[in-house]
């Protein structure tokens, strides 16, 4: 089926004046939302509920009747529904999360991480990228759709929105940055009606990336699984004056070295499609390098990665073609002259589709080798990899919406190296795409802004993204 042409774009039906006002509103709301420091883990609890209430107030300001749930103290999530006339099938879901990772102004931020400054063409602050910017885009789309109802003399909280054949669900949840079990995970188990949809969009895709002179828009169709293991290394306590081979710290350090060594690449179907589609859009030299990246020889794959792209993208690609192990926490020792008899290493593992939890346990034991008998493994977190179809009505529409807004842009499918709330939605069978549309200036270090210092999102990037998300919503529901 050829993708819908989106000609004309639904957004073209609105006058420029409306878009200017919508954009101004979006930027103001985003800055405001950044000022609510909805840090996860919350200490003390509360700021996530504050953010949910701030978003709910925004939704009420244009006539919706949102629902705020607080299943755990201070952990607020907010939901709203715009009605269609019920002739178009199951709803469309605009998903997001409202929590952010911690930020410390003393770490060198140009603007305070919770000041919500708008300066030099950016909205600055923790969450601008991950992911209050997308929250603001989604709320911006709801605002425009609600205005349709009001212009027709209807109540946007109750009446079908003119032109919508299916409902639009908005869900902005707490706790994503800590696994989402007290946010989207709880909602899936207890209020699935708030999330059940024919498909939806979420964070972390649809953002332009300039590679070798072409502008690509990776649409996130899959995400890696996540496992966390704590490894207790047992040695023998002793006096520091007489070193021992079974010093637990020394063994743990060797274990870390073995675990952190990158494993063999494996190209999954989504990554194969990505490499092929990117190669098709580039010249023959770059295409040849990409063929090596996806080839059978790990050394040539690595050499090609080094040769072809920006280290930021190479690091992401390297992670997307293998299971990764990243040591994160190391504890050992009590006093300098005591040989430690115990050490603890916590490792963060990201798995490709096709790698099972059992595979990972075996891989850890294999890498530990002769150290394995000294180690106890404890799995403390597990989440399966997820993927959505790289075809079908919604995926084709996302591609068409990018092309309509940026005819030179090349939409491609991609896997995220990290996990999102998509892992919870998969339990409801909701196909979810990472699609928070932004057109960046070439050279923007966007990937480095996730959880980074000086997190910020371009005002013009948002200006481009709002009509794209509107086109997607209006077309899928129209
Ligand atoms: Zn996020």
Short précis:
With 478 residues, this protein is an alpha+beta fold. It is built from 13 helices and 19 strands. It folds into 2 domains: 303 residues, 3-Layer(aba) Sandwich (Aminopeptidase), CATH 3.40.630; 159 residues, 2-Layer Sandwich (Alpha-Beta Plaits), CATH 3.30.70.
Protein architecture, described:
It is a single chain. This protein has 478 residues and is of the alpha+beta class. The chain folds into two domains: 303 residues, Aminopeptidase; 159 residues, 2-Layer Sandwich (Alpha-Beta Plaits), CATH 3.30.70. 36% of the residues lie in helices and 22% in strands. The protein has 13 helices and 19 strands. It has a six-stranded mixed beta sheet with strand order 1-2-6-3-7-18, covered by helices on one side. Strands 8, 9, 16 and 17 form a four-stranded mixed beta sheet that branches. α11 crosses α13. It is globular. The chain binds zinc ion (ZN). Zinc ion binds next to α3.
